[in-house]
Amino acid sequence: MSMLKQDISDADFYDRLKATEEILIPHTQFKNAVARLQRSIEIARRGAEPRNAFLTGEAGTGKTWLAEYFASLYPAEVRAHGSSKPVLLVPTPSSPTLKGLGEAILLALGDPLSHKGNAFEKRERALGLFKKSAVELVFFDEFHHFLDHAKHDSLIAVTDWLKRFIDDARIPCVLMGLPRCEAILQANEQLRRRFSARLELPIFSIDSEQGEIEFRTILNEIDKALPTQTLSGLAEVNISRRLHFASNGLLGYLRKLITGAVELMLIENHRTLTSSILEQAFREVIWREGMRELNPFNAAFKFRRLDKPGEPFAISVITPREMARRSSR
Predict the structure, then answer these.
(1) How many CB atoms neighbour CB 274 within 10 A?
(2) Main-chain dihedrals φ then ψ at residue 22, nearest 5 degrees
(3) What is the mean pLDDT of each run of 10 residues along the chain (329 residues)?
(4) Integer Cα distance of 254 and 49 in angstroms
(5) How many CA atoms lie within 13 Å of 259's alpha carbon, on the beta-carbon side?
(6) 53 forms bridges with which residues in the sheet?
(7) How many CB atoms lie within 10 A of CB 218?
(8) Residues with Cβ within 8 Å of residue 134, at least 6 apart in sequence
(9) Measured between alpha carbons, how far is 7 from 177 in angstroms, rounded to an integer?
(10) Which domains, and CATH codes, for the chain?
């Protein structure tokens, strides 16, 4: 393989790696979601009723990445009487309770006493800090925790609390979570009505010509943005299909794989990404047991989904009965 023309200094190494991590993958649904949320803020600024939304997608489709990118479009500012936080990202507690949700909001707002007070006191402080910090939109991430870990009575109480909090905050709110979150909204009609607008991030498929073209288009944009000396040919048919099997069509895994491969490329002083580098990156950052025919970048690979038991994309099935049990316990 060709060597780089000059040695990579430590600063250059980290700059290139950081640039890779920050590559934006603006596919159609991503751009549509961002535009919809920007419109929600503009509408709210003009005094109209807040436009809330339910942002859903399987794990790895980029929901949190979208929220973080959107927040970067409205950066915090230091003002005479405190800092503004136009866009707030609140992680839903793993076991949601009234106090826990209020504390999570206060933590996101930077309240050093977020653990102090009862549920009502935390709610009131949070509403006050929303105004003081000029919050214009809030994301509630991992909303599926309400379904996974909350008991039936606490689920009703917390979703009612959230509904009233959203009404009193009077700013656009976005609930983010796995598709099964729909069961939570179905169980609370008033919350469902407030979040009737749906935004969805997809798993990319290459089972159709149109789907494969879209996936290869994304790979081509990534390829052009990478800190390589020459293009790596990621959008070529053979390598693009291998990348799809290596990521299962999930942008979260794709970004992780590409970043890992770029790190190896820089360490080994190569000009571009190669199949051998991608093969090694797959083992290091996706699946350590991905050897030979189980590694999409190995010549022995059989071009199949890695979704059998024990493989990285094994299917986890939640039956309708289990879904009903979770929502009613």
Answers:
(1) 19
(2) -95, 5
(3) 48 85 86 95 93 93 93 87 88 85 92 90 93 95 80 72 90 93 83 89 93 95 93 97 97 94 93 96 96 97 95 70 42
(4) 38
(5) 18
(6) 174
(7) 22
(8) 84, 85, 86
(9) 44
(10) 1-23+206-329 (no CATH), 28-200 (3.40.50.300)
Residue type, 227: P
Predicted confidence at residue 41, as pLDDT, reads 96
CB atoms within 10 A of CB 34: 16
The label of the residue with tokens 């169980």 reads: 187
Residue 273 corresponds to which amino acid?
L
Strand, helix or coil for residue 140: strand
DSSP 207: S
pLDDT value of position 8: 54
Q: What share of the chain is helix, strand, coil (3-state, %, to 5)?
A: 50, 10, 40
Write down the pTM of the prediction: 0.83
pLDDT at 9: 59
Dihedral sign from CA coordinates of 215, 217, 219, 221: negative
Cα(103)–Cα(157) distance, rounded to whole angstroms?
A: 16
Residue 130 tokens, joined: 């929303």
**C-alpha–C-alpha distance, residues 96 and 151, integer Å:** 9
In which residue are the tokens 């290596």 written? 246
* Rounded CA separation 121/84 (Å): 22
Nearest alpha carbon to residue 257 among 242, 236, 243: 243
Structure tokens at 54: 């339910």
